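User: Structure please.
Assistant: Input sequence and predicted structure:
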Amino acid sequence: MATTHPETRTRAGAAAGAPRLRWSPLLALATAAFLGIVTEALPAGVLPEMARDLRVGESAMGQSLTGYALATGLSAIPLARATAHWSRKRLVLAAVAVLLLADAVTALSPSYPLTMAVRIAAGVAVAAIWAELVGYARRLTPPELHGRAIAVTGLGVPLALSLGIPLGTWSGRLIGWRPTFALVAVLAAALLLWIAAAVPDALGRRRGDRPEPVRAALRLPGVRPVLFVTGAYVLAHNVLYTYVAALLDHSGAAGRRDLPLLVLGLASVLGLAVTGLLVDRRLRHLMLAATAAFLAAAGLLLLPAPAAPLVLLAAALWGLGWGSAAPLFQTAVSDAGGERGQTLLVATWNTSMGLGGATGGLLLDLLGPGSFPWFALALLVPVLTVTALARRHGFPPRRDATTPGTAPATAPGNADGPRAAPRTAAPWGDGDRGTGDVPVSPRAG
């Protein structure tokens, strides 16, 4: 009879018991993030065609992006309170259904006001998706894999920017913008089926519970530094990215914009992949490195007519810094403020996105595209300073059992920060109830 060495059995048992990611639900949620970004940004690639067909100017059509982002940012907190008692899975399904409807109506819309109305509705719906990604990611995985799971759910964002939007733009030019939006609606329909089959449910808050207001999370140590860093970082990125064509033309890349944008997108995916592997152990170091990379990119773009290799290097550094951002901010704010902090992050992130387009437009009209890197530097230097100072709370060197929301031994199921009362979480099969002002199920930039 064959025998197994004891050491072999021990290693096999350890491997069998090792914590693993639940890939199917996490990837379904990542696809929801992908859908939200594609729905938001697709008009940017087909703006002239949409403006012509809907009989408005390009600047007016561009407001369909600003309106979407502002709707997401401004609705995040009130939407969280209004849906606090909903089943978390039902909320995500409803949000994806609204995106499906918005994309289908956009494909058929004969008028600009109708298009704007459904896009604002889509912006409100996607606020629910952003708010749920981190809660789901944390509850689908053990504490030591939280950061990696958050990175997986955030994978949809760089993939949408590096692949989804370019493919949508190409499709818009090949078959028209209306059929392209119809294809996005088909993707949304398939995603509804995937979520229904793969994503487990969690209950919202119990009726009669009186949660603390979301804004009360601002009093928790570390929340305000993370929100400041998020707002300034996203604003700097969006001023550059919204008018990236003008910026690249100013930098001497006119006529070859596709290559820097491809490098930016691929570097974003690489930045996210590296962050996903290391964020649970190196949150602070990654945040400092990402900011330094973004700062270096802005510095290179300040050079008068830089050589093509320097433009590509700037795009690579920018992409590495930006691709890392979403999981870093989501992990940091969830550790500091739990689900309420996450809702504040959604509001901060998307409001900064909307303001980025408006601010960039003013800078372009008043000072020209050469002012964009200077503006980014003016924001990123304080970001680096605040990150360096937030060593104890916000961006600590270690994420361990004392970090809020990651201490199962003392506060199982508690995702609401250091001042929330611990509550024992029900097993998944019985429906987990969230503990924050935002109802959580088992959750991206």
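The chain is about 70% helix and 0% strand.
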